[in-house]
From TrEMBL:
UniProt protein name: NADP-dependent glyceraldehyde-3-phosphate dehydrogenase
Pfam families recorded: Aldedh (PF00171)
Keywords: Oxidoreductase
Top-level taxon of origin: Bacteria
Organism for this UniProt entry: Rufibacter hautae
Amino acid sequence: VHQKEYLSNGFMKAWNGPSHEVYSPVALAQPDGSYARKLIGTYPVCTEKEALEALDAAVAAYDNGRGAWPTMGVDGRIKCVERFTQKIIAQKDIVVKLIMWEIGKSYADSVKEFDRTVEYIYATIDALKNLDRQSSRFEIEQGIVAQVRRSPLGVVLCMGPFNYPLNETFTTLIPALIMGNTILFKPPKHGTLLFYPLLEAFRDSFPEGVVNTIYGRGHAIVPALMQSGKVNVLTLIGASKVADELKKLHPKVNRLRAILGLDAKNAAIITQHADLKLAVEETVLGALSFNGQRCTALKIAFVHRSKVDAFLELLTQAVSKLKYGMPWEKGVSLTPLPEPHKPAYLNECIEDAQAHGAKVVNPGGGTAFESFVYPAILYPVNEKMKLYREEQFGPIIPVVAFDDLEEPIQYLIESTHGQQVSVFSQYASEIASLIDPLVNQVSRVNINCQCQRGPDAFPFTGRKDSAEGTLSVVDALRSFSIRSLVATKFNENNKQ
Ligand code: G3H
């Protein structure tokens, strides 16, 4: 897919500037027996000036809240989003293929990502209808009648991640849009091409300048956008370091709203009373779905010392049954990694753990070939190792033995992350005693199940460096708007 046009100011434009070549992580066998990544497309590389022009288009379309979009009213905006959704559904096949080729996600998971995104949009529309009914009401206090409503915030700069390029982009872009904001949107570096088939849908569904797409290297174009002071809301699903740096560039950082989904190091706590079979099944799902490249993934397992040997044995068996292969192969769950640097980074983490006394428990664990990395279970992991604190975002399961439940709790207290934790125990009293200490460290405690974002109606957030603001079908609508009111005082001169 070679992009010859891009969407700016709400319109498609011919592109004559420099392009970035996209090589698929899927390396294919060549006639000479070697393997090569396939060139699957190009995308335009915008200059700072072009990015700023697109930002100005979003500013003009918002027009200080007087633009056609922010003043359209909820029903009109819902109709536009419905029209847009119909148009993107028509592009499902090509978008799913591009997800597979660009980020190496399995066919089943790519379809799931697409369908979940469409369901999310429809759920957002329903939620907005409800929210509008509830929040557009009249309140009377001390002779003042107030009509309460929710109003937009301005221009939203929206950047999604590579691991859910479609879904996580739209879980911020759609709620921001439907609440009346105008959008400047940069697709993720890995996961750009899949937006091409949707550009015309944007152009044909929304007024000019309401959704503007920019491409290129984030570090080259995004700082200028932030420095301009014209971005009212920054929404990013990505690294906390990047979010911190970008926020600092805004001249009025205290006036900037940030809705962020960031780093996480979610832990599993497997107590001496855990159902080990269940704990292993959920750990495999939690740690290795999409090769561990999920912010919600389980990234470290604390196992009671009395259960460690049995846990490692069952986990090794379960991992050995996972099928790896190309994204389009049936039943495949381990696939190529899109980030070229990732295999070397994961190897570095494994070597560092080995140097500090851990062993790769499962046969072949950590073996890399091209962009594949076979999952590694490492034990015993301790605080001297990178893997103890660092978010590996890949197929490694570090296992730590503990004697007292206070140890994993202390780990979470000291952590800079605070997204989720999973607790495995069959004793209700043990679980009950853990809930308060844990829920005050992370934003979601999962009992006898893996960490995850869904169901999407549940609030999705995190403590500490893991998030800012809250996402979900309903919470995102609130996050991208402000509660405002029109208050009228009734008196003798104001009877009508
Ligand atoms: O990477 C973070 C995603 O929000 C994870 O979502 O738990 O549904 O896989 P998920």
